[in-house]
Structures are given as C-alpha cells and as structure tokens.
Amino acid sequence: MMIRRSGVPAILTVHGWVMDEAITALRMNPRGNFHYIFRIINWILHRLIFIPLIYSRVTAIARIKLEKNGINGVVIPNAFITADVDKKVANCKNLSFDDFTLVTYVSVGGSLIKGMERLSRIITEVNKRTDRKIQLLVFGTPVETDNPHIKMMAYRDDFLCYLKSADMIILGYEMIELGYAAMEAGYLSVPIAKFKSEFEELEDGVHGIIAESEEDMIKKLVKTIEDPSLVREWGENLRAHVLKTRSPQVIGEKWRRLILEVTGMSPDATGKG
C-alpha cells in the first residue's frame, strides 16, 4: 500500500499460468511442492486486493497469460538477447544425429499438463509412416515414458548445443507466445513445429509447421522429413522473424510508451532535455 500512497505508478508483470502451475505442482508432489500453497494465497490476494488498488497497469508476455489468469492487461513480449545465445553456443561440439531429431522443453505448466502424451502419440505414428526414423529429445522436467523414440535429457547446461544440432523444435500444446526456447531455436535457424493457437503469430509453411490437429502435425512432419530443404528455409525465416519482432530495441519501445502512458507523459516524448 506504500506504493499507492506514494503516488508512484506501479506495473505488475505476470509470468506463467499462476493457478494452473501451482495446482499441477501440488498434484504431482503435494509434500515436496507444499510451498505452492503460499503462491496460491498470494495470487488470490493480488486478484482481490493488490491489482485493483495498487497497480496502474498489468502486463504479460502473451494474451494467453492474461486470459488464463483472468485479468486484463497489456501484452509486451520478452526481448531476445542474441549475445547470450552466441556465448553459450560458441564452444559447442559438433553433434550429429542419424535420426531426424526434434527437441522439446517441458516444465510445470502447459507443456507438462497436455504436451507429452500428445507428442508421444505423434512420434510413434510418424515412425510408422516413414522409412527414416524420428527421435524426440525432451529437456527440462523429466516425464515418465516407455516410448523408445523419446529420450529424457532433463536439465542440461548444453541444451543449446543440442538445439542447434536438431532439425526442429516441437511444442505439444497450444503455445501462443514465442517462449524463450522457441526464440533461441529461431535465432539458431531451427524451425518450429507447433499447434495453431487463437492468436497465432507464426505462419504455417513459412516459419515451420503450424498444425490444426494431431493428424495434420503427423502428415506435415512426414512430408518435412522427406524434404529436408524445407527445414533450412523455415529456419532462416524464423530467425528473421525473431530478430525483427523481439529485439531489445523493439520491446524497449513498447515499455517506453507504456511507462509514459502511466506517468501521464506524451508517448512522443523522447526523454531528452
């Protein structure tokens, strides 16, 4: 409440699906994830008291974050820092795979709730329909699976080295925003395979595969495996899109205009005296 009394505008940025992630964590391991109870209480207080009374604006990196959390706000995507990726991949060993290789990254959230079972079905079916084998490397939160074409990689410092050497990154759920792993893939010219979402910003056949259904994803993956030139073209297109829409300059300008708005200044102000 000190913020409100001070007269200084406050902006709240929401990350993730707050309640969904907390409830999922508690279901997976009630005792080990007991601290998520406090996150739920904290979020209820924010919804009922803090957001209406304290904050001038609420932001999120994607529309889905606002909708899943039941709040109104402004969408400002994450900026992408290319230097971070350049540094991490500078000393990567040359990884090569015999199989067509997909990479995915899962955590406590949409990717873990919906994604892995769907991806397992897709990988199994694609392997039935093509002579060239396809494998999926899963990074992040380990998930139990008996699928021989899926390898659990857990959390690794050399994730970007594997991503750089992969053919595509695949997402098993409707991810509207470009998450950081997807932006890293794009910057490394690795195209994406994902399911079409309500506010889709990527184009099917331009940035990768944007599928309407599981069957659509399977058919398009089979076609892609048999025509590797598509992967190279899509990868370059996705790289150009990431650099154009997620640069610090572009995202910084969005923040500048929002801050000027909440402080009552003209959006055309330059800040130069």
Automatic annotation (TrEMBL):
It comes from Methanothermobacter thermautotrophicus (strain ATCC 29096 / DSM 1053 / JCM 10044 / NBRC 100330 / Delta H). Pfam families: Glyco_trans_1_4. This is Glycosyltransferase.
